[in-house]
Design a protein that fits this description.
about 160 residues; single chain; Rossmann fold
């Protein structure tokens, strides 16, 4: 069974995340979505709580009727050398990790894991959650085009 792990903070969940997960759910038997920094919210970098981020992901994926994914929580430990072991203590039943984060890639490769770049997502369409948060803060309505409609509904309620 081919199982993938995709870790992100999803602050907020955006169209790039959705494209990656859509491709992953079609490519792998099982997809594990790890919500990183799950224990941190109400900060500039992490404004949304765990419950809200789970809702963003589930509601955005619902129209696709995928049943081969699960969401797990990965709290921050602020200890990079031990972070992979921390992740593995929470979830270890995966064959490949999907990430574009060079630090995450390096840490998992050092532990012998197969790491792939995000699939279904290219540099031309790359989105930045920090840029989306900035647009929201500045009341720049263009952020609404960068996230799924379900996320717009959750944020603007």
């Amino acid at each position: 069974m081919r199982t993938s792990l995709f870790i992100g903070r999803f602050q907020p969940f955006h169209n790039g995340h959705l494209r990656v997960l859509e491709t992953m759910c079609k490519t792998f038997d099982k997809v594990i979505i790890g919500i990183g920094s799950s224990n941190i919210d109400k900060t500039e970098k992490n404004p949304y709580d765990l419950k809200t981020r789970k809702k963003m992901i589930n509601k955005s994926l619902k129209p696709f009727h995928f049943t081969n994914y699960k969401i797990i929580e990965i709290p921050d430990i602020n200890d990079p050398p031990n972070w992979v072991n921390h992740v593995l203590s929470i979830v270890s039943d995966f064959n490949v990790i999907i990430t574009n984060n060079n630090f995450t890639k390096k840490l998992f490769e050092e532990k012998g894991y197969f790491v792939m770049g995000t699939i279904g997502y290219d540099e031309e369409t790359r989105l930045s959650a920090s840029q989306i948060r900035k647009k929201i803060k500045e009341n720049d309505e263009s952020w609404k085009e960068l996230v799924p409609k379900q996320v717009v509904d959750i944020i603007t309620r």
